[in-house]
Amino acid sequence: MAMDYIVDKLGGRIAFGGDYNPEQWPEEVWKHDVALMKEAGVNLVSVGIFSWALLEPEEGRYEFGWLDRILGLLHTNGISVDLANASASPPPWFSRKYPDSLPVDADGVRQSYGSRQAFAACSPDYRRAAAALTTAIVQRYAGHPAVVMWHVHNEYGCHNQPDFGPHAERGFQEWLQARYGGLDALNEAWGTAFWSQHYYDWAEILPPRRSGTWVNPTQQLDFARFSSDALLECFTAEADIIKANSKHPVTTNFMGFNMGLNAPVDYWRWSGHMDVVSNDHYLIAADERNFQELAMTADLTRGWAQGKPWLLMEHSTSAVNWQPRNVAKAPGEMLRNSLQHVARGTDGVLFFQWRASRAGAEKYHSGLVPHAGRDSKVWREVVELGRALESISEVAGSTVQAETCIIHDTDARWGTELDSHPSEDARNVPETRRWHDALYRAGVTTDIRQSTDDLSGYKLVIAPMLYLVTDEGAAKLHEYVEAGGTLVITYFSGIVDENDHIRMDPVNGGGYPGAFSELLGVSIEEFFPLRSDDAVGLSRFGSGTVWSELGKATGAEVLATFDGGAGTSGAGTSGAGTSGAGTSGAGTSGAGTGVDGSPAVTRRAGSAGRGAAYYVATSLGRAGLAELVQLLCSDAGVEAVMGVQPPEDVEIVRRSNGTKDWTFVINHSAQDVEVPLDGVELLSGTATGGTLNLTAGGVAVVATPA
């Protein structure tokens, strides 16, 4: 595994460091930098990510002197390098010389240079120049002893996607021809009989630019898929040049759940092209449970890595610069964040950036070396983190233990973000987060995978809002239940196929949830989405928000029905930020909604009495969802990591290599806690004596025989 290769190059230590931009500073600062890196225990830095303008001051003329000097200095001081090919941000001279390389927005307006990543993915000029730059860099540094890894581009799709310009127009037409073969197939897939949209020539097809009203939804989906593939072509072209000249692993940094329909990159499709899966993660300060969102994103990254160790390429030591209110991290929060990622599978903890900038748009973004310098909270915590990572390096190479899986398909997520739907509140990511949060609170570790993956190793699988599902994905979930697995499917799932067509018999109808009606033993005839401030009562599991339905059980046991006479939901808002915590302050929608007595939660047993398929027809509140999760875990035989639910806001995750276990206990609460755990606590080097005592905000890593 490529991550093993990097850890081995680092002497068996977890990677620790971040983006290093020496070009921002006078050379006399560089020696001071490497001395501080050694003090903190830094062993890996990323260099050159945004250096194109300095490396190639004019077309075809390269200036490598400064890069030679800094790589030599880093190597002399025992610090390894993740070297970038610098293709992320073309310099102003390039954009001025090749103006049609700049991206065009959905209104047809060409964007300017002056920020970063100002390029159109399908621009032949950009691709040619990026390839030439990559070739020059890799041929010069492939054998450099400091280099252990290659970093292609930076955060693909961020800030400049999707592009709606003429290069994208031609590329989209070619992509569609390859996908559909002929226009008859495209017209059928896009449903162009609606609104007189039939195409007779490939040249008639445009990107989904701004129009008078709603643009064809399948066209929007296909353009998102194309935009992701166009960027992937850029990555693979540059990665192939590197691989032809070097044996070091190649990566690019993903961005967690950030890449929705309006910034589309399908990381499931990309991950197979990565030697090392790496990810950037930043807390949203306004999110009351951002530590749980961090855990969910780390679980997703581990899914892209197919359960293998991965690399945290960027996070922040404290505040960022790009949120409305850039809240600094509390004492100890950086350590908790970092060890959360390690607990969930990373073998490296890197930051943006090494030294906080003194100029530019990100000058208020925190760094490992803050503006205040060494005499600061941040620097003291950086040194503490370096020592902590050194003390737990033995966990490197181990894997996370999980019996439960959440399904998160990119197309299903993008599909829920299309317009003209029953409710704008019915979105895949917020519902996914509610389920992850409920399992997190129960002390159950979850993997995140696709519907088409092999799910046979999981006792419990949750599919939140799998709106769009392929025939293959639906068949895999059917097979999972028939093999004895316990599956949960929520509302607005199985509704459409990969072309966003309703799954139904055009003559006889059939009802929702299309792909899963038989599996679940339910038939839904009409959606009754709720108003933003409404809640609907249930006969069990409290109440729900966002959604209700009129339907019947056709073979399932009804565990709860809709009951308009219940009280307020206690469900919280539907957005991802609060994850359903707290109370909504909403009243019920009451009798007369048309759904009273319809099934809200059902269970259908699998064949031969093995396995079960549950259906949840609303967005349950926190208490109701906790009750249901307890029932599901009991039914599936899933246990919390410690066998019991952990104290509130205490995170417990276990990694193992088969002979040794490492249990991470992270206390996000303001209370001291006790956890029954016997072993050696690696951060302090002491035995727990059977009980781990953890202070408020504290962290522990306990090693035990497997």
Going across the major beta sheet, what is the strand order? 5-4-3-2-1-9-8-7-6
Which residues sit in consecutive blocks of at least 5 with pLDDT less than 50?
566-591
Query: Radius of gyration over alpha carbons?
Result: 26 Å
Strand count: 30
- Could you estimate the helical fraction of the residues in percent? 25-40%
Q: How many individual helices?
A: 18
Strand content: 15-25%
| Gap between N and C termini | 22 Å
Q: State the secondary-structure class.
A: alpha/beta
Shape: globular
Biggest beta-sheet profile: 9 strands, parallel
Mean pLDDT: 95
From the structure above, extract its key features:
single chain; 706 residues; alpha/beta; 9-stranded parallel sheet; 7-stranded mixed sheet; 18 helices; 30% helix
